[in-house]
Structures are given as structure tokens and as C-alpha cells.
Amino acid sequence: MLALRAMRACYRLLGRRVSIALLMPIATYFFLTSARSRRASRDYLETLWATPEGRRALGRRPRAWHVLRHHFEFSIHLLDRMVIWQGDSHHLEIEHEGSEHMFRLARERRGAILLGAHLGSFDLLRLISAQNGLTVNVLMFTAHAEVINRFFAKLNPQSRVHVIAFDPNSVASIFEIKACLDRGELVGILADRLWQRQKGRTVVAPFFGRPALLPLGPFLLQTLLGCPMLLSLCVRTGPDRYRAIARPFAEAGVVPRAERVKRAQELAQAYAKLLEEYCLRTPYQWFNFFDFWEGEEPVRP
Amino acid sequence: MDEFGDLETEIKQLIIDALMLEDIQASDIDSEAPLFIEGLGLDSIDALELAMALQERFGVEIQDDPDENREIFASVKSLAAFVTANRAPQAEAGGRG
Fold it and tell me: Do B48 and A168 lie within an 8 Å CB cutoff?
């Protein structure tokens, strides 16, 4: 929290460029204070390094310096998320890759699930949706969603991003998701964090050669509701530049009951495979700072 | 009263079929026991699946109202009450499974 406040004050007083120059101490703070995120980063980089394509992407054997670089990249993303929350989008340039798929679905008012990940900043969807007049709903596992909604409404009354407070064990919010999709809106879900452990709602998918535990819920949702699914990522490609990536992932169509679990498992595995591809493009923007492969509880650095 | 009891049994069977619950008979489910977290331990995906099965069988539609939905999905008994109040007149015995 201290680091975030410092970052915010710095951004307000000095602007984005100077703030980035001053981010190294903040990154170092994250690096020094969280042994778990340090370990997770190292584990991730080593796992990449153990594969031929990961070796090509990284170029060098990961050392402590690379772990720090990973944390530094995270700090830049944190800062830019704050920049966007403040509505100061003019600082950032967005290039698009495949966004036409998303725009078409929105134009045709066909509800779709945007499958995100902790790769780059999903938050940039705020900017993209505002710039292009899309209505986006984002799932969040928090009771604070109400507060967050109010916060954003105040910061930027034009914001068309709505946060859905989601509890996987409750009936309360699942019909809200369905209603959004029925209205032809987009629903963003980060599918690289577990929803819940019980009831077999998890699926094992190989990720860079090691079995990782993924949530089955997002994919079951697709097989049940039959809405199209797009992979949606936003990664940093230059000092002030981000790339919005949208890629058709699952066709529309309800899957028969008996085949749903199998189909959802296949989708989850295909998702992990695609994530590998994008991780290799921007290896330092993977921000799942917890023991991803063992499926331990995530920790905020 | 008897008719209402039949509907509850029908809903129990629907839950078992729709959610593919193994090793459970309709008679094992208590009409007044909670369905979520406790009792059968259903979750949000189950709720959605169940809502779609209810719509298919009885023509009833679950709306997007969190508080109301919590009440409707509280137990088999509350589900039966919801179906009774909202079922489409012609959907009687139209179960296609």
C-alpha cells in the first residue's frame, strides 16, 4: 500500500515519464519485501528457460537481475493502470491486433466472453472499451466490487466498464453474467486463477511442460451458455505503447450436457497452450506471482 | 398438497439428472434442506445448469435479481413454489429430459 501511495503521489506531481524513471525503487521494494513473489518469478523464469522456446524468448539464463526486471515490469503496469483509472489515456497509445473480432461481436450485440489472463494488464480493457464504445463487464472475486464501481463512476462517469462481484459458490451473481451476455454485452473473465478447489471444478493443463491447475468454471460457462469466446490480452510493447490482442477462441454453440465437462477441459487446455504462445512474446509480463503450477493461493506482491 | 409433493419429487429428479449427481436418489434429498454450500453443496455453475433445466421442463425463467434468486434456490421447496407460481400453462408434463 505504501508503494502504491508513493507511486500515485509521484504520478500526480511529476507525470508519467518521470514516474517511470522513479519506479525502480518501487520495484526493488516489491522485490525485497515479498519472498513469495520473488520465488514465484524465479520459478516461472526457470520453467520457461527449461523449454527450447522459452530459452529463445529469454535469451539468457534467468538470474536475480531478471527477477528484479520482472518486478520492474509489474511496477510499470501498476503505474499505467493508475494512469488509466485517472482517465489520463492520452499518455498511452494502443495498437490493435484482432480487435475487429471484438468490435464485430459488440456491433452485432452478440454477448461474448473475453478470456483474459494475468499477462499484461487486463485493466486496459477500460481504455479500449471507452475509446470504442463497448460495454464491458469484468468478473471480480471481491465484496469490494460495489466500492470499486462507485470509485470508477466518480473518476470517469463515461466509463462503460462494470465490475461484477462474483462468488463461485453463490447463486447471486451468475445470473447477472447471463443477463449481461443476453443483452449482447462483453464479459471479461481472468481464467488463470482458480475459482474454487472443490467439486472437481479444476482442470490440469500442461504449461511450459509442467502441469498447472486451471479453473474449469469459465469454460463450463461457455459450454452452458453457448456464447462465443475471445482471448483478450493487453501487453506493453513500447515505452508508452500497449497492444490490445483479441483472438477468436471458441465458436458460439451450446454443448450437450453429457459432453460439457470434456469440452470445457479441452478449452482450458487450449487456453493454456495459447497463453504459452503469448508469454513467449512478452515473457516479463506474466504477473501470476504465486506458485502457479502447484495451484497455491495467489499473493499480491 | 399431494400435487405439490409430486412437483417436489419431480424437481429433485431434475436436479439429479441435470447435475448428473451420482449415487443420489430423489428420496435422499430433503425438500427443505439448503441446496448451496450446505446440503447438496451446489455452486453457481450448478445454479445456471439447473435454471436451464427448469426452463426447458417448466418454461420458467430465472431473472437477474440476486436476492430473489437466493430465495428461489434456497431449497427444493422454494424451487417448487417458484415453478408453481411461474410455470407456463401449456408446459404441463412436457418434460423432454
Answer: no
Residue B97 placed within a domain? no
**Domain encompassing residue B62:** 2-91
Q: Convert the pLDDT of each residue in A58-97 to its tens digit.
A: 999 999 999 999 999 998 998 888 788 777 778 889 999 9
The three grid cell numbers given for residue A200, joined into one nine-digit string: 472437481
Domain count, chain B: 1
pTM score, whole prediction: 0.89
CATH of the domain at B67: 1.10.1200.10
Is B45 in CB contact (< 8 Å) with chain A? Answer: yes
Residues of B in contact with A174 (CB under 8 A): 44-45, 47-48
> Which among B41, B44, B52 has the least Cβ separation from residue A171?
B44
B96, part of any domain:
no
